[in-house]
C-alpha cells in the first residue's frame, strides 16, 4: 500500500500540474480514472469509474482565477477506493464530490502561498538574476506536489477516515477564510484580464454581459448568444460603412462629367 500511495501521489501531482499548465485533457476524470486503474492493476474498473465521474464533473472549468472543485484529485481518490474496496462506482460517486471540495480548499491555500514567490520573482527579475527566477518557478511546482500529496497519500495509505480527520482538524475560521478567498478570486481574475487587455471601448460589453448574467438571470449560453448577435450586427454596419466610404466621391463624378 505504501508503494501505491507514493505512485498515486506522484500521478496526482503530475495531472494537477497538467491541469494548471496547458490543460491538454489528461487531467479529466476519464483519463485520470484510467491511469489510476493502470497503477492499481485494474484499468477496466478505472475507465468505468472515470467515465461515470466524467459525467458529473463535465461542466466544471476554471474561468479566470476561479478555483473550481478539484476534479482530478476527487476522481483519483474515488477511483482508487472503488478499486481497493471492490465496491465499484457506487463508492466513487459518494466520495468524489467531498474529496474534490476538500482538495479545492487546499488548492486555494497553495495558490495564496505562491504569491510569496511572485514578489520574490519580481525582485530577481529587476536584478537580472534569471537563474534564481527560474528556481522560483520550480518552487511553485514543489508547492503543488506538497499540496496534492497532503491529501492523496494519507487517503490511499490510511483510508478515507484519515482525510476526514484532517479536515476536521482545520479550524472553522480558516475554512471560512479560504471560502471567502475563493469567492473573491474570480473578480480578481477578471480584473487582471481587463488590465492586460487595456481596450477601454470593450469595457461596456463586459458590463453588459455581467448585467445579463447577474440581474437578468442569463446562463452562459444565453450571454454568448447575445454577444454573438451584437458582434454580427456590429460587423454588418461596419462593412456597410466601409463600402459607402470607399465608393465614388462627388469630386470624382464631377471630374468624369467635365471630361
UniProtKB/TrEMBL annotation:
Membrane-spanning parts = 91-114, 135-160, 180-203, 210-234
Q: How does it sit in the membrane?
A: Multi-pass membrane protein
Q: Major location, coarse class?
A: membrane
GO CC field: plasma membrane
Its domain of life reads: Bacteria
Keywords, in A-Z order: Cell membrane, Membrane, Phosphotransferase system, Sugar transport, Transmembrane, Transmembrane helix, Transport
Question: Its Gene Ontology biological processes?
Answer: phosphoenolpyruvate-dependent sugar phosphotransferase system
**InterPro entries of this UniProt entry?**
GatZ_KbaZ_carbometab, PTS_IIC_man
**What is the official name of this protein in its record?**
PTS system sorbose-specific iic component
Amino acid at each position: 500500500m505504501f508503494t501505491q500511495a507514493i505512485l498515486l501521489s506522484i500521478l496526482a501531482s503530475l495531472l494537477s500540474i497538467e491541469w494548471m499548465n496547458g490543460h491538454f485533457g489528461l487531467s479529466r476524470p476519464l483519463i485520470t480514472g484510467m491511469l489510476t486503474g493502470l497503477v492499481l492493476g485494474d484499468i477496466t474498473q478505472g475507465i468505468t469509474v472515470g467515465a461515470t465521474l466524467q459525467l458529473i464533473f463535465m461542466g466544471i472549468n476554471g474561468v479566470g482565477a476561479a478555483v473550481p472543485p478539484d476534479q482530478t484529485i476527487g476522481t483519483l481518490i474515488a477511483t482508487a477506493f472503488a478499486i481497493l474496496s471492490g465496491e465499484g462506482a457506487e463508492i466513487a460517486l459518494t466520495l468524489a464530490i467531498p474529496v474534490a471540495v476538500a482538495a479545492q480548499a487546499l488548492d486555494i491555500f497553495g495558490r495564496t502561498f505562491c504569491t510569496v514567490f511572485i514578489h520574490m520573482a519580481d525582485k530577481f527579475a529587476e536584478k537580472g538574476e534569471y537563474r534564481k527566477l527560474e528556481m522560483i518557478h520550480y518552487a511553485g511546482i514543489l508547492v503543488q506536489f506538497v499540496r496534492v500529496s497532503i491529501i492523496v497519500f494519507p487517503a490511499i495509505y490510511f483510508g478515507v477516515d484519515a482525510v476526514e480527520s484532517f479536515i476536521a482538524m482545520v479550524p472553522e475560521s480558516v475554512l471560512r477564510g479560504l471560502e471567502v478567498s475563493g469567492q473573491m478570486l474570480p473578480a480578481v481574475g477578471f480584473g487582471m484580464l481587463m488590465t492586460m487587455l487595456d481596450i477601454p471601448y470593450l469595457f461596456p460589453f463586459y458590463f453588459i454581459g455581467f448585467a445579463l448574467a447577474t440581474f437578468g438571470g442569463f446562463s452562459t449560453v444565453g450571454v454568448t448568444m447575445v454577444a454573438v448577435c451584437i458582434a454580427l450586427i456590429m460587423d454588418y454596419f461596419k462593412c456597410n460603412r466601409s463600402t459607402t466610404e470607399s465608393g465614388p466621391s462627388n469630386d470624382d463624378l464631377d471630374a468624369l462629367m467635365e471630361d
